[in-house]
Amino acid sequence: MDPFLPKNHEEKFWRILENRPRPLKLKSLFLETSSSENIQKIFKNKFLAPKILKNVQIGHVDHEAIDQKLEILEISESDTWQNLESIGINGFVIWDRVDQIFSENNFSKIFVTIQEIRAEDILELKENLLSHSSLDHFHFEYINFPNSNQLSIFFGNQLMENRRQRTNFCYFQTENSQKLLSFCHNYSKKHIDFCLIDRFMLNDDFEYII
Questions:
Q1: Confidence (pTM)
Q2: Does residue 35 contact residue 65 with C-beta atoms inside 8 Å?
Q3: Rounded distance, CA 116 to CA 69, Å?
Q4: What Pfam families would the database entry show (predicted)?
Q5: Which of 67, 76, 121, 177 has its CA 20 to 30 A from that of 111?
Q6: Are 50 and 83 a contacting pair, CB within 8 Å?
Q7: pLDDT in tens, 73-118
Q8: Using CA atoms, how far apart are residues 48 and 55, in angstroms rounded to an integer?
Q9: d(Cα 24, Cα 79) in Å, to the nearest integer?
Q10: What value does the CA radius of gyration of the chain take, rounded to a whole number of Å?
């Protein structure tokens, strides 16, 4: 079964899920929906086998729609969520704190938009990611970042700036001596990225590693 369903098949999709005698075994789910309630239903109901589903990509059926409010703290405690490896959500804005819903190390890829992010959230997330060996790329777009100036206090002189690209960035040594955690904040485009890079990608005399 093709997991991608266009918007005109949305009602049929839910009818199939609700009438199945057992959870649907999908490794990846690509869903376009017009309602944040449908996203809640995916995780709160046992429609999909949680140990099988690894990748979820969700988008709004109206690609020009204003981002809708989405609260996922409750569903982040579900087995389905905690077994995911990759999630991407477009057209919806998450109103929960980043460190509360992405604190576990099960995710390797994240692409979401957050209503508000704080420097404390980034610091907490960074600490968790230092031991995250399967990290690929975490990308957080945000609407508000009220205390972004606190980043320079938390990270000190190691927080560098590229004024041309309007970014702040720094590197952290992970538990693996050959891997670094890369942090980048694009304050012009309002997004934050974490990813793992190989240590040899930087010069041996590079001093700005925390």
A1: 0.87
A2: no
A3: 12
A4: FTH (PF01827)
A5: 177
A6: yes
A7: 888 888 889 899 999 999 999 999 888 888 766 899 999 999 999 9
A8: 12
A9: 15
A10: 19
Comparing CA positions, the residue from 74, 75, 79 lying closest to residue 49 is: 79
CA distance 99 to 194: 14
Residues found in the chain = 210
Q: Are 200 and 176 in contact (CB under 8 A)?
A: no
Q: Domain boundaries in the chain?
A: 4-148
- How far is residue 34's CA from residue 22's CA, in Å, rounded to a whole number? 26
Which candidate, 35, 199, 74, 81, places its Cα nearest to that of 209? 199
**4-148 is a CATH 3.30.70 domain:** no
3-state secondary structure at position 154: helix
Sign of torsion, CA 126 127 130 135? negative
